[in-house]
Design a protein that fits this description.
Blueprint lengths: L13 E3 L2 E3 L4 H5 L20 E3 L6 E2 L1 H7 L5 E3 L1 E3 L2 E5 H4 L11 E3 L2 E5 L35 H47 L36
Length: 231
């Protein structure tokens, strides 16, 4: 059955470790080939696979597959525009945040592209014109960042990687500062200790025990003591 108007609980982005993670069905959806003939219902006229089950996310399904094996499951319908897969914005926004993704009006319905469209040559846009942050395709609205759901997934992955590296860099910087601070403190201690006067080495006198004897000096005699007087 096609999704109702009520939001689907548990199908949106999962937040883990402070970072938003994509729902598990999204990446398989972006890599699925739609509008192929169903091999299980070859004889049916309605065997074109343009449906996708969000509960099973096991490939493209036809309408007969939904009625037989996916009853009461959450499913979405994929449409085509110029040979590219699109989905209506009112359907996908119930299960995934499509903010900052460029929408287009096709057959009176607002849709978003599942994957980026190939570009034959590099886009030549002015510096001020809006473009996709992932594939650089020109956008219609300046407040949008991505041209498709796949580009938004890639852009969010790059942002998470930059945040992780930024946190790691901050931790490394704080550790470096702590190491340098401790080194500076040890340096200051060394300088203070180098300015303190050191204890002089003990002399030989300090090791002598008992009373010391005074050394006798050189005797002084009278200069006339050795002369003989003649009478």
């Amino acid at each position: 059955m096609v999704m109702g108007e009520e939001p689907i609980i548990g199908m949106k982005e999962v937040q883990k470790d402070g970072e938003k993670r994509s729902p598990p069905w999204l990446e398989p959806l972006l890599t699925t080939n739609f509008f192929v003939q169903c091999k299980a219902h070859i004889g049916s006229n309605k065997r074109e696979c343009n449906m996708y089950c969000l509960d099973c996310f096991n490939g493209a399904l036809c309408s007969l597959c939904l009625s037989q094996d996916h009853h009461n499951h959450h499913t979405i319908q994929i449409r085509r525009s110029s040979y590219h897969d699109v989905i209506r914005a009112v359907e996908i926004q119930k299960v995934f945040d499509i903010s900052r993704v460029q929408t287009y009006v096709i057959n009176s319905a607002r849709v978003v592209f599942l994957n980026p469209r190939p570009q034959p040559r590099p886009p030549k846009t002015a510096a001020a014109s809006p473009c996709c942050h992932t594939c650089f395709r020109s956008l219609l609205d300046s407040f949008n960042f991505y041209c498709s759901l796949a580009c938004k997934i890639a852009g969010n992955s790059n942002e998470d990687h930059c945040k992780t590296n930024g946190k790691k860099g901050k931790i490394d910087a704080s550790e470096t500062e702590s190491y340098s601070g401790s080194g500076q403190e040890s340096g200051r201690n060394t300088v203070v200790e180098s300015f303190n006067p050191s204890t002089p080495p003990p002399t030989s006198v300090s090791y002598q025990t008992g009373p010391t004897k005074r050394r006798k000096g050189i005797p002084h005699r009278s200069s006339f003591g050795g002369l003989l007087l003649e009478v």
